[in-house]
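Hey team,

Filing this mostly as a record. A colleague (T.K.) asked me to run one chain through the structure pipeline before their review meeting, and I want the input and output archived in the tracker in case anyone asks later how it was produced. No errors, nothing strange. Just documentation.

Input sequence:
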Amino acid sequence: MKDMTPPQLDQSRVRQSFRRGLQSYHRTASVQADIAARLADLLQAQGAPGQFETALEFGCGTGHLTRQLVQRFEIGSLLLNDLVPEAASALQDFGGAAPVQARFKAGPVESLPLPHGLDLIASASTVQWIPDLPALTARLAARLKPGGWLALSGFGRGQFRELAALGSAAAAPSYLDAAEWRPVLPQCLDLLAVRQAPVVLEFDSALALLRHLRQTGVNGHAQQSWSRRHLRDFEDAYRTRFGCDGKLPLTYDPVLLVARRTA
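Output structure:
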């Protein structure tokens, strides 16, 4: 019988990785910024109302999605959450057209006390770090009002495929392709839209690629150290297998979805 126990995650290591990259994340995480904009666009395209009375955003980081949401929707009360407590300092000005009453709570969303009767729950580039996604989505659905909206993005199984092939990636516990999301959601959530489209970044060197990973914290579960020789061997192997026109590609595999509670 297949073991269905969710994989374990060292949250302290992930928290430390994102804390270390917090100051550089906002300007460096261009893919995540684009994902946040696309997720807000998808929410609008599925007919979400222009105003939400209460909303929760978990894994808010430096506010890429926060700013996209408040620029597109009027939100009366907004609860922001992140695993890293220091993220609160990066969330001072949302740039929205209307004032937003926002408060911040740090901690893992799986155990964070959450209000009931929410109109919107949103998160960008976070759910891949949740080991037990069915449990989380059931918990989130229970906090939504009937008719409430859920907008999430994570990453598919092609995430960092180059690093994975070379044995240098630390996979998050919940990489899911678009077709795998429906069984993860409780029956009370109507999956309105799901989108998956890989994005490839290019780097001049392995050092630049690894610096990008460090500055964004996205490979935060990795435990690898790098000697000069190891770095050289890694770059040689990377160029041999994946190099193109002198560049080293790195694949992101974002998956975006919008759902709505039916009852």
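Quick notes for T.K.: The first strand starts at residue 51 and ends at 58. DSSP finds eight helices and nine strands in the chain.
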